[in-house]
Design goal:
single chain, elongated, binds uridine-5'-diphosphate, binds magnesium ion, Glycosyltransferase family 2 protein, Glycosyltransferase_2
């Protein structure tokens, strides 16, 4: 029989953990009663270096109910690394990752399990609508997914990190040793038979978002530079275009100087290109710098997470 493990990263989630664990345990019990999953099924909470009572709550939950397990990271490493720590550590035949705030509809989990039964190794939870997100988040997310696609990154619009993975695919993921992690982009690269389950995303029932704009931006940039070298190619293209363009401009200047008397002692023609080219150069130095810093981080091969304690 299938053993399920729910993998839940938590960062400062003291406000939601009791309610979340109650709902998840009820779901597990229901599935166990129905004979869909084995009695060894578990929940694994990963404390991503929280500064509030998150870890002590996880310890209490563990003491109350052996189905609740916990992993404590030695410090905050961000949602993606916390999730990875959970996936790499949790036992079980199928791992389902979901957020601690239960914005992802847990009633989609039995449907994911059904897809797994009919042969899918990875089941992606995909948001039906985005009506519960703020207008800002909706617009930025939609355009970001479009941008990723134009960069050639395979990504499933509307899918965040709510998914079911079979043991086989988790072991495949283990072979990806990237330090700069963007799971949403890596999982589709694994291959295997996949399926999609649609659900509606609820608003957070308590607490605040742990993803401020700054963290969102970092994740967004990671997504691009971890999977696509297109921005690097741009610099060559734009550089070539500018070079050709400036040759034309030079020809025109020579023509104006020799055959007409339109030439004014050239302030504009010197200063504007200086700013323009300076700007472009700096921009692409930045782009190149982005990739170099990634390479730097990858060559150091530092651990992606450090586990301090396991329950
Ligand atoms: N999270 C984490 N580490 C972080 C930030 C967030 O483990 O540094 C977890 C958080 O506890 C939650 C999930 O990632 O389970 C998603 O965060 P949140 O719900 O705040 O993001 P939003 O839904 O607002 O995008
Ligand atoms: Mg959330």
């Amino acid at each position: 029989m299938t053993t399920m493990n729910l993998v839940v990263p938590c960062y400062n989630e003291e406000e939601v953990l009791f309610e979340t664990s109650k709902r998840l345990l009820a779901l597990l019990e229901r599935l166990i009663e129905a004979g869909d999953i084995s009695n060894e099924s578990r929940i694994t909470f990963i404390d991503d270096g929280s500064r509030d009572r998150t870890w002590s709550i996880i310890e209490a939950l563990h003491a109350q109910n052996a189905r609740c397990g916990g992993i404590k990271l030695s410090r905050n490493r961000g949602h993606q690394n916390a999730l990875l720590a959970g996936l790499m550590t949790a036992q079980g035949d199928v791992l389902v990752s979901l957020d601690a705030d239960l914005q992802d509809d847990i009633e989609a989990i039995p449907r994911m399990l059904a897809e797994y039964r009919s042969g899918a190794e990875i089941v992606f939870g995909v948001r039906h609508k985005r009506t519960t997100d703020t207008f800002f988040k909706r617009v930025t997310a939609r355009n970001y997914y479009k941008l990723l696609r134009t960069f050639g990154v395979e990504i499933l619009p509307g899918h965040a990190d709510f998914r079911l993975m079979s043991r086989k695919t988790v072991e495949a993921l283990r072979q990806f040793q990237e330090v700069n992690l963007f799971l949403r982009g890596i999982i589709p690269l694994l291959g295997f038979k996949t399926a999609i389950v649609e659900y509606e995303r609820a608003p957070r029932f308590a607490g605040e978002s742990k993803y401020p704009l700054s963290k969102m931006l970092v994740l967004a940039l990671d997504g691009i530079t971890s999977f696509s070298a297109v921005p690097l190619q741009w610099s060559t293209r734009i550089g070539a275009l500018l070079a050709i363009g400036s040759l034309g401009f030079g020809a025109w200047a020579a023509y104006a100087r020799i055959f007409t008397n339109l030439t004014v002692p050239g302030w504009a023609s010197t200063v504007i290109p200086m700013y323009f080219l300076g700007g472009i150069q700096l921009l692409f130095l930045g782009v190149i710098g982005g990739y170099i810093s990634k390479t730097y981080a990858e060559t150091k091969q530092r651990p992606r997470f450090i586990i301090e304690q396991t329950l």
